[in-house]
Design brief:
The structure holds 2 protein chains of 2 kinds.
Chain A: H1 9-16, H2 18-49, H3 51-55, E1 60-64, E2 76-77, H4 79-85, E3 90-104, E4 111-119, H5 132-137, E5 143-147, E6 162-165, E7 168-176, E8 187-191, H6 192-197, E9 206-207, E10 209-214, H7 220-230, E11 235-238, H8 240-253, H9 256-286, H10 288-297, H11 301-338, H12 346-373
Parallel strand pairs in A: 4-8, 5-7
Antiparallel strand pairs in A: 1-10, 1-11, 2-9, 3-4, 3-10, 5-8, 6-7
Helix pairs in contact in A: 1-11, 2-8, 2-9, 2-11, 2-12, 9-12, 11-12
Chain B: H1 2-12, E1 30-39, E2 46-56, E3 61-65, H2 72-79, E4 87-92, E5 95-96, H3 102-109, E6 112-115, H4 127-135, H5 142-155, H6 171-183, E7 189-193, H7 201-218, E8 221-225, E9 237-242, E10 245-251, H8 252-264, H9 273-282, E11 284-288, E12 293-295, E13 303-309, E14 311-318, E15 321-329, E16 333-334, H10 336-341, E17 348-351, E18 355-361, H11 362-371, H12 375-384
Parallel strand pairs in B: 3-8, 3-9, 6-7, 7-8
Antiparallel strand pairs in B: 1-2, 1-4, 4-5, 9-10, 11-18, 12-17, 13-16, 13-18, 14-15, 14-17
Helix pairs in contact in B: 4-5, 4-6, 8-9, 9-11
The chains are: A alpha+beta, B alpha+beta.
The complex binds adenosine-5'-triphosphate and magnesium ion.
Chain lengths: 381, 386
């Protein structure tokens, strides 16, 4: 039999007690799961909330200076948009209207609020995989497109079905894929014509967003400064990415719901530290005579430290793999049932992995104190 | 190899009087003096070792005995660098332990093999792995790593159980794994607390033989705390500890020789040999440089002496002038007259060359004399010429 050069003490100690190993792995996997969930919700909120900002098919977005986040419905006069078009670098401006309207559920006869976006269909202002033919449908008066990932509260929708939007009949001309977020349960799109037709004339020249497209090769940031300098200060300009980031910042800092999950992530981390510490501590407490014996034999404190850390790393890595597997399944399930975006990116996996390893290492460092406190003289007699 | 042999035989040599002698240059592997040790602080402070002195040499198997609570284990942990020395000098394997840092103590422990009463094996490691783990203390080749544990386990009669974990081993087998672990790095000093307690007669013997082999071939010093009479015969030295004091420290060969000599001493010729052995165990070794006075004529007599090695001169003051009246050498005794007759010293004894003597305090001497059944007659016959 070929025998290895080293004795893998940490590994063998860990797998010797199957019950404890299952417990350790389970506990670690559980904390990993908690952290993934908290982060999933945290990111899910941000991702969903800022989804629209990132989806604008524009170089700059003009909005009212009071429109500090996406749930604000302040509008500005479209004259500003025309003034923007006066800049030679600007090739195109597109008005976008947004609002909250009611949509009646045909089955329950209940009207539910839904998020509405309206725009000139030809301009294709949203990068959400809408085909030109579907967009074309919006040119016909009284048509809407329905977000097929809207929550179920609106009832079943079929193509060409007549629905009641704000008390008026509209035809469902097609579907698109977008998804709800914490503020909106669903989304419908409308052509500019249909939208304005239902508006009182006084508010027809008020728009929510103005998408600005530039000519090729234009420096967007200097154009932005240029426009802001020349236009009255009742509007602001953001690139889609800036708007997305502003949205994430807003949900993290201003809205408690983002913060709750952020705090949850931190708490999950510390609970993880405590659970790992408890497990390691018990493991060490059970092996105190053995550790003291190693000390008596002349093994250094460094050796014992490495032994404990090695065990905690093993637990953390294995626990992580299991925890990530469970989290993935839950992500899919949650996304399917709530429509909130839940996905793992390599970056996010790396963050949780780092947190897990840090967690177990901290626990190891705390627990190793117990080992170093063992008195080698105690094992004698 | 030849040199090794001579060294071995040097260690085992005895002088013409039958006392064991060792090479002059041999450094003690354990050399302690003035060792005091207390547990606890302040009010609850409890001293368990008192001013102990002990010199142990390479190749010696030392058996330490003493009543429970006498401090044997404590002394062993001090020698084993498991506790810090509080007071006194403690040189182990050439290194002074007093004031050594924890890391220094740990480094020293690498060269000491410990056999604990509780063997504390890792339940996840096989016998083989347990020994291999201990080898990680020192760099070694891959081949050695595979062969040495097997070799030692074979010597301990454990080859069939080499790849068993502790749960599948009996108490005695576990004990042998722990012994193997202590021996694997060929330490210069082995400390064992009741190593044969869990073993049956045959395996106990096997272990003892292994100890003996190590001591003979590698000149390793082995200290065994034991009450096991079955192994007492391997001892080169027996140290007896009572209430924190080393009350006797004798080389077995010397004890035998002392008994022989005491027997030849007319006073004790009829004394029961068990009393002689007790007395022999109570004799203390004293060393005198050339010319140094051991006893002086006219002083109070308090000890009886037996020469272990070297020579001595006996002088008497005759008419105001020191006269040499006798020369003594190994195996001769002196100092008994003052004790028996209860008079002042009748002569001066001075070391000739380096002199080693065993001394027996007056009380023990008296006890021994009283144990001699025909004491009165003897006394009269010899010393009063009646
Ligand atoms: N950690 C300790 N703290 C306080 N007192 C101790 C400690 N260890 C031992 N003692 C005390 O020191 C004295 C000597 O104990 P030690 O264990 O050295 O005796 P021993 O000769 O080995 O006894 P035994 O034959 O029973 O093993 C005892 O009175 C004991 O109660
Ligand atoms: Mg003891």
């Amino acid at each position: 039999m070929v025998r290895p050069r080293k004795v893998f003490l940490a590994t063998s100690m860990l797998i010797h007690n199957r019950r404890r190993m299952a417990l350790s792995l389970g506990a670690t996997a559980f904390t990993v799961l908690i952290m993934f969930m908290e982060m999933g919700f945290f990111n899910g909120i941000n991702d969903s909330q800022s989804l629209l900002a990132g989806a604008f098919n524009a170089d700059l977005i003009m909005m009212s200076d009071r429109s500090v986040h996406m749930n604000k419905f302040n509008r500005f006069n479209r004259v500003r948009l025309q003034q923007g078009l006066a800049f030679p670098e600007v090739s195109e401006v597109i008005p976008v209207y947004k609002g909250i309207v009611t949509l009646e559920n045909k089955e329950t006869k209940q009207s539910r609020l839904i998020f509405l976006l309206a725009f000139p269909p030809d301009a294709a202002p949203l990068d959400i995989g809408l085909s030109p033919s579907v967009l074309n449908e919006l040119k016909k008066p009284g048509t809407i497109l329905f977000d097929s990932r809207s929550r179920a509260i609106y009832g079943g929708m079929e193509r060409d079905q007549i629905v009641t939007v704000d008390g008026r009949d509209c035809r469902v001309a097609g579907f698109f894929d977008f998804g709800p977020n914490f503020s909106n349960d669903g989304t419908i799109l409308m052509g500019q014509g249909t939208f304005l037709q239902y508006r009182p004339p006084s508010s027809r020249d008020q728009v929510s967003y103005g998408l600005i497209r530039t000519k090729p090769g234009v420096d967007v940031q200097s154009l932005k400064k240029d426009i802001l300098r020349n236009l009255p200060p009742d509007i602001i300009l953001l690139t889609p990415e800036e708007m997305r980031q502003r949205e994430v910042r807003y949900t993290i800092t201003a809205v408690p719901i983002g913060a709750i999950f952020g705090v949850g992530l931190v708490i999950g981390f510390f609970i993880g530290v405590m659970i790992c510490y408890q497990i390691l501590y018990n493991e060490i407490a059970d092996h105190m005579p053995q550790y003291a014996t190693l000390k008596a034999m002349g093994f250094s404190e460094k050796y014992l430290f490495r032994l404990v850390i090695r065990q905690s790393l093993l637990v953390s890595l294995l626990g992580f793999v299991f925890g990530m597997g469970f989290s993935f399944i839950l992500y899919v399930a949650i996304e399917a049932s709530t429509g909130i975006l839940m996905f793992m990116t390599l970056g996010r996996i790396a963050i949780i992995l780092t947190l897990t390893v840090t967690m177990c290492t901290i626990a190891g460092i705390l627990a190793v104190k117990k080992v170093t406190s063992s008195d080698p003289a105690e094992v004698f007699g | 190899m030849v040199e090794e042999k001579t060294k071995t035989s040097l260690l085992r040599q005895t002088n013409e009087a039958g006392f064991s002698i060792r090479a002059r240059h041999l450094e003690p592997s354990v050399d302690l003096s003035g060792i005091n040790f207390s547990f606890g602080e302040g009010e609850s402070r409890k001293q368990v070792l008192y001013n102990n002195e002990l010199k142990l040499f390479p190749g010696e198997i030392v058996i330490m005995t003493g009543p429970s609570g006498s401090g044997k284990t404590t002394l062993l942990t001090l020698i084993g660098a498991l506790r810090s020395v509080q007071e006194g000098r403690m040189k182990v394997l050439g290194k002074e332990l007093k004031g050594l840092s924890p890391v220094g103590l740990q480094q020293t422990r690498k060269n000491i093999g410990f056999i604990f009463q509780a063997h504390n094996l890792f339940e996840s490691l096989t016998a083989f792995q347990t020994l291999a783990l201990a080898m990680e203390l020192f760099p070694c080749s891959k081949d050695e790593f595979a062969s040495r544990p097997a070799e030692i386990l074979r010597e301990l009669g454990m080859e069939a159980r080499m790849h068993y974990k502790p749960e599948k081993l009996s108490g005695g087998q576990r004990q042998r794994v722990a012994i193997g672990r202590a021996l694997i790095n060929h330490p210069g000093l082995i400390l064992a607390d009741e190593p044969t307690a869990a073993l049956d007669k045959d395996t106990g013997r096997q272990v003892v033989e292994l100890f003996r082999k190590r001591a003979r071939e590698e000149h390793c010093t082995i200290i065994i705390v034991t009450h096991d009479n079955r192994i007492i015969d391997v001892a080169d030295r027996v140290v007896n500890l009572v209430d924190g004091h080393i009350v006797s420290n004798v080389l077995v060969a010397d004890t035998l020789a002392i008994c022989n000599f005491l027997q030849k001493c007319p006073v004790f010729s009829t004394t029961d040999s068990s009393f002689l052995a007790t007395a022999a165990n109570q004799m203390r070794l004293e060393t005198y440089g050339p010319g140094e006075v051991v006893i002086r004529e006219g002083e109070e007599g308090d000890k009886f002496y037996l020469i272990r090695s070297g020579t001595a001169e006996v002088c008497k003051n005759i008419e105001g002038e020191d006269r040499l009246v006798a020369a003594l050498s190994a195996g001769d005794f002196f100092g008994e007259v003052a004790l028996l007759k209860n008079v002042k010293r009748t002569a001066t004894v001075r070391a000739g060359e380096m002199l080693e003597v065993f001394s027996l305090p007056r009380e023990e001497f008296d006890m021994l004399v009283r144990a001699s059944s025909s004491f009165e007659e003897q006394l009269k016959k010899i010393y009063f010429n009646v």
